[in-house]
Write the structure tokens for this entry.
Amino acid sequence: MAKIIGTKAIQVFDSRGVPTVSCKVFLDNGSYGIAMVPSGASTGSKEALELRDEANKYHGKGVQDAVQNINDILGPLIIDIDPNNQEEIDKILISSDGTSDKSKYGANAILAISLAVSHSASIANKISLHDHFYNLYENIVGENQVQSIPMPMLNILNGGEHANNNIDIQEFMIIPSGAKNFNQAMQWSTEIYVNLKKIIEDSGLSSSVGDEGGFAPDLKNNEEAIKIIIDSIIKSGLEPGEDINIALDCAASEFFDGNSYTLKGENKKLSSSEFVDYLDKLVEKYPITSIEDGMDENDHNGWKLLTKKIGKKCQLVGDDLFVTNKDILEGGIKEGIANAILIKFNQVGSITETIKTIECANKHGYKSIISHRSGETEDTTIADLAIGLGVGQIKTGAPCRSDRVAKYNRLLWIEEENSHILLK
């Protein structure tokens, strides 16, 4: 039985050149696990706190305080504990912080240790990280999930907070839902991505990319973005609605002022019911099978309207709405709003809490989607997490930029080496 003998954290950088936390957990057998924490740009107001330094360095975005909290305070608390005891370790870290949003020591500090513990345990057990997460789910929840390769949702066109253009909806994604395996899913997706670039450039528009690798051209409106994606699907010899479906991340909280949804790109100001009708028309007209954050996180009446109107024909995903928080998710389930949850472990701050939130979703028939953040690193933990917990869906950006592609490449290797794990 291996034991933790030490931890070490440093400040590293995410895909936007913004500081983030990396942590190593050292074991008495000479091995160690290492992890890096992602960071979001479009964030929910109820997310756990990402601790940033007050100093002027890095424009106030430094994380040396969080790093010091690991090295001086949190790390010593888990010495001599078996890294397989993930729940015990996470409880110690969370209890030491003592705040509801992990604001004392930082969710980024707690998560960095939590992730690195998982990596060290898989190494100590000489098993893959996805197998370790599979075992961890059983240990924490008391039941098994079938491991599966997740269906990717690739953000190939950006607007909102992820791009400097006039498109209001934040993400336009493709889902290669007709693919036989992950390899084919990526082939189709990369071909569509290349064809989309050609269509954009042939139109005289910029093919520069946003934070998550999706293109960010100036277009007339949201509907034009959907149309050029469909054109790129057809140009790739694929059938919209059969081989490829479309998903949207509205990030509606970004353009809701408390009363109205303002679509600046379309010069429209809509009430909650009018915006529900707007989305319903898009779903009727185009092969859209998933909508994330279709309403503002606090517009629960709007969410009820949206769920009632299109919840039976479209996946409605709560991101800012639920922020990977089990208690908040349970409240939404009682209200009957949405039917799926986006899982971002840095929203809640530990692996144990992430697993318990997914278990809650499973128990109540809500789908889960493992997701990256706009500020990512080369860390591929979410690929193994998606497989080990069998959630069936993953969001990790366009097939562009190494911080995104690293996750897809990890999934390709897992599929290659595990013929029994199938695309869900």
Summary: The radius of gyration is 21 Å. Residues 151-417 form a domain with the TIM Barrel fold (CATH 3.20.20.120).
